[in-house]
Design brief:
The protein is mainly β. The protein has a five-stranded antiparallel beta sheet, with helices on one face. Strand 5 and strand 6 form a beta hairpin. The chain starts with a strand and ends in a 29-residue tail after the last strand.
Length: 148
């Protein structure tokens, strides 16, 4: 199972001089993709337990567009192993005369990749093979979703 997000990095995302975006912002996008994968697979947002590895390969700047991809690579009883990649598909290319200039990259640039593990407690799984309905949210009795 795979999921993809495409997001523009804004000036608000820039954390360092030169409009450089913090790597933590990219990791947050990996978390968003993981959440979508868990919802599609299990009908629940689950919890991100740990990253096994994170590698930043190229800088990201305000104005860049990233395509963030994730894939479930292994399904355990409650754990879901995942891999992630973030690709720059549009690069900010400002000049003093044209500060809003940008360019579509002929080939996407891999800016980060990671792997990690998420969990969905058995009682919250409503996806394939769980024996529960995939539609709806919360519990049938109370309409609430509680973790205990």
């Amino acid at each position: 199972m795979e999921a993809t997000l495409r997001v523009r990095m804004s000036a608000h995302d820039a954390h360092y001089g030169g409009n450089l975006v913090d790597g933590a912002r990219v990791m947050g996008l990996f978390g968003d993709v993981a959440t979508e994968l868990l919802i599609r697979h299990d009908g629940d947002e689950g919890l991100f337990v740990a990253y096994d590895s994170v590698v930043f390969k190229a800088p990201v700047f305000a104005g860049d567009f990233l395509e963030v991809r994730g894939r479930i690579t292994r399904v355990g009883n409650t754990s879901r192993a995942m891999t992630f990649q973030a690709w720059k598909v549009i690069a900010a290319d400002p000049t003093p005369e044209q500060p809003s200039r940008a360019r579509v990259l002929p080939e996407p640039i891999l800016v980060a990749e990671a792997s990690g593990t998420c969990v969905v407690p058995k009682q919250f799984q409503r996806g394939p093979g769980s024996g529960h309905e995939a539609a709806g949210s919360g519990t049938a009795e109370s309409g609430e979703h509680k973790r205990g």
